[in-house]
TrEMBL record:
Residues given in the record as heme c 1 binding sites: 72, 86, 89-90
Family: Belongs to the NapB family.
Main location: periplasm
GO cellular component: periplasmic space
Gene Ontology biological-process annotations: anaerobic respiration
Residues making up the signal peptide according to the UniProt record: 1-21
Descriptive protein name: Periplasmic nitrate reductase, electron transfer subunit
Annotated source species: Vibrio thalassae
Binding-site residues, heme c 2: 107, 126, 129-130
Location in or out of the cell: Periplasm
Gene Ontology MF term list: metal ion binding
Post-translational modification note: Binds 2 heme C groups per subunit.
Keyword Transport: yes
């Protein structure tokens, strides 16, 4: 019995030793690189420059039924449980006065296609689908082509 206890104790001491060795050697990126680049764990990567958002709708749609890109700045626009800045301009109630496009009726439909009196919860978080237009490099190269009906060349 005593021997067994000693064996268990020394085994756990060994394991703690291994764990400590790893903790003491945190260098490198641990083999983890993200699509946004690689940086050492201890370093904070400098932030990218802000993207430029052109004011006119310059980037055209790539497929039918694509959520239109946002042709304006959205910095500081709160979309949370308490407030939805986007709807302050884009809701049916406010759009006319704000000179903004009103959200289409699909934004009032629920999963069963019933039209609700207010924006559907599944369309509440606008930025899940709409992004500001920017000339951003794709994170992964791809050979995606526009659907035929929208192709100009
Ligand atoms: C201060 C008012 C205002 C706010 C707030 C606002 N927008 Fe807009 N938005 C506009 C106006 C005005 C346009 C029409 C184009 C233009 O003049 O820039 C527009 C255009 C758009 C379009 C393009 C519509 C189309 O038919 O192509 C989308 C998408 C859009 N906004 C999404 C959003 C989202 C998402 C938010 C919140 C993050 C938001 N907007 C907040 C005023 C606003
Ligand atoms: C689940 C994805 C999704 C979410 C979330 C969403 N939209 Fe859309 N939106 C779309 C799609 C798809 C279209 C184009 C087809 C359509 O009108 O349904 C669109 C169209 C629009 C248009 C153009 C309407 C028109 O008549 O041309 C505006 C403006 C807009 N959305 C604003 C918003 C705002 C503001 C929010 C947040 C309150 C929002 N969207 C949330 C998918 C979404």
């Amino acid at each position: 019995m005593k021997k067994l206890l000693v064996a268990i104790l020394s085994l756990s001491a060994l394991l703690v030793g291994v764990a400590q060795a790893e903790l003491n050697n945190p260098g490198g990126i641990g083999g983890v690189e993200s699509l946004r680049g690689a940086s050492e764990l201890e370093d904070t990567r400098p932030a990218d420059d802000f993207k430029k958002y052109p004011r006119d709708q310059v980037i055209e749609s790539d497929y039918v039924y694509q959520p239109p890109l946002i042709p304006h700045q959205i910095r500081g626009y709160e979309v949370s449980l308490n407030a939805n800045k986007c709807l302050a301009c884009h809701s049916w109630k406010n759009a006319k006065e704000m000179g903004a496009t009103k959200v289409s009726v699909t934004h009032y439909q629920n999963r069963e296609d019933a039209v609700l009196a207010d924006v559907s919860p599944r369309r509440y978080f606008c930025l899940q689908c709409h992004v500001p237009q920017a000339d951003a490099k794709p994170l992964i190269q791809n050979d995606f082509k526009r659907v035929d009906s929208l192709r100009t060349e």
